[in-house]
Amino acid sequence: MAKALQSRSAAGMTVLRLDDAMDHGSITLDGGAGDDSYDLGSGAVAVTIEINAGDFSVASAAVTDGTIAPADAESITDFVSANDLIDLSSLGLSGTIFVEDGGGVLATALSQAYGEINSGSYDVVYVDLAGDANSVDYIFYDNGASGVGVLDLGTSTTLSTTLGDDILI
Q: Mapping DSSP to helix (H, G, I), strand (E, B) and coil, where does residue 92 land?
C-alpha cells in the first residue's frame, strides 16, 4: 500500500492527498487547528476525518456574502458516502441534520445555514441547493465556543441525513 502525502504550510494548514495506489484498508485523520485540505483519492480506502473543538471556524461575514473562500473552510474532495465518515463526536453535538436549500440561491443558503448553527437551532446543516441531500456542497457544524465550522466538499456529493452513515455526532 502506498503512503499518504502530507505537507504543512507556515500558516498551519495541512494538505493531505491519499495516493490512488492505496487500494484497501482504513485511515483516521485528525483535523487539527488549521484550515485543512483532504483529497481522499479513489475511494478504495475508508477514511474517517476527526474534527475537534477548536478546529478551524469562520466568522459570519466570511459566508454571508454569498461565497466561501478556500481559506474559510476545511476542504474535502472525493468523499464517498457510506465509505468515508466525518467524525464530529468530540464536539458534543446532538439533534438531527438539517438540509438548507436557500430557495436555490447559494448566498441565501449559506447565510441561513450559518444562522441555523449560530442560533443553536441545529448543530449540523447541509447546504444543498436542491434540498434533497443529493447534492451537498458544504457542511456547517457547531464548533463550540469557537463558532461555526465549514467543510467544503468541492463538488456536489450525495450524503445521508441518518446520523452515523456519513456524519457522526
A: coil
